[in-house]
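Changelog excerpt

This revision adds worked examples to the README so contributors can see how folded entries look when concatenated. The first example is reproduced verbatim below.
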Amino acid sequence: MIRLGLLILATVAGLLIVLTQMGDGNPRADRVAAPPEDAGAAQDAGAAALDAPAAPLPAEAPAEIIPAARQTPPQVNRFPGPPLEPSPEYAGTTPPPPATPGEGGPILYVTADRVNMRAGPGTGNAIVTGLDGGTAVEATGPLEAEWIAIRTPSGQQGFVAGQFLSTTAP
């Protein structure tokens, strides 16, 4: 154990002697970059000084400049996909025209910033779409229910909680 301690002590002493003899000076001093010159914030490094007057702009654009409209290639839909076909259950029928509020039931307005319209009355039903605040919808069911059946201006039908609907426009 004493031998190991003496060996470590001799190794550390040898390293200190070598470092004091060879460690003088900075061997990387010749590789250190010179400090940058003070330049204005608007001037890039290596750019001409900003104090010189700028050359006047020519009256007309040089002939070698090509307008951007000629440089941009036209957009081509290379993979349009197959033509759309109606679902089998709707084949041969025409979709109903979009409903506009005021054709049937009373007009209600969404009072919250954003409300989910659901497929059925209750939060357990799937979300059909989201309605932004102030959207006018047509009530297609009783107004006294907790969930009111509605139709959007685009013709989608669903249910919204009655607490988020009002008869007065925002």
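The second example, added in the same revision:
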Amino acid sequence: MKLHINGDVIELEQQMSTVEELLTHLGLQEKPLIIEHNQSILKKEDHSSREIQDGDQFEIVHFVGGG
């Protein structure tokens, strides 16, 4: 499965079916995030039901604290 994530093409060996599965695979499931999937901003409650397909585009923004 190939996905476009933050401008990079990422090839995943295993098939992902939802945004939630993708975030778990990337180790981002516990972080506060903003997810854009195919030019649509997702609400957190939609991550488990939003299906993904080969070639989908994502912009993932997570917050980092510091000073």
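Reviewer comment on example two: The mean pLDDT is 93. The CA atoms of residues 2 and 52 lie 11 Å apart.
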